[in-house]
Amino acid sequence: MRHILIASMAPVLWLLTVFDVFAIGRMFSQYKARKKIMSLLVAVMCVGLFYDSLCLALGAFLKESAALKFFSQFRYIFHLTMIPLIFPICAYSLRAKSGIVKAVWAVTVLIIAVGLVAGVMIKTEPRVVGAITRYAEAEGNPSWISGIVSFLDMFPVFLMIGVGIILMRKKNPNMFFAGFFMLLFTLLGIFLGKDPGGDRTQSLMFYISMFGEGLMVYFFWRFVEQED
Predict the structure, then answer these.
(1) pTM value?
(2) Residue 193 DSSP one-character state
(3) Which tens digits make up the pLDDT trace of 45-61?
(4) Per the count of CB atoms within 10 A, which of 139, 189, 200, 226 is most buried?
């Protein structure tokens, strides 16, 4: 299984990147047609997920280089500043009152500001797995940077699942599925992505979790379509 996953990485990552472009294009088209803020937020947030796929796919060509390191720094910046948009997306999807939406936006802006600083300051190191070279979080980063990365990796997923359960009553289960599949493939990455020799740098978790990101983009796209 591990050999199959490693052999498939480059083409699958490019397929995910192309799919993200198509789905995001559809989301922006829906925003242009209906002018709903939630459609715009979902599309912008998914741009960060697209850039994540793109950087990993580029790792098949750029290898260990200053260019890939530069692009990868922006990968963290986009991730830590766009994923927080899930918070107001959830508030709008629940039709929250104006005061609650404003409070959520205040917290979101604060998290985005912290995420921006963390994304600029985070130290990365090259890791090579199969045909893919990527720059991942290095050892020795300040604990608050590792903390904000971990928080934004997991908390929004559980939030989407919780909000998605509520939205099922409105016949729109797509928010739930977006969070559920992201969580599922993250867990699969933890348990199935381990290197047999115990080398943490050879973990396939980053790749397996990308299937969850692809499904998250798909279900957010479906979510926006159904909401409209």
Answers:
(1) 0.89
(2) S
(3) 889 889 999 999 998 88
(4) 189
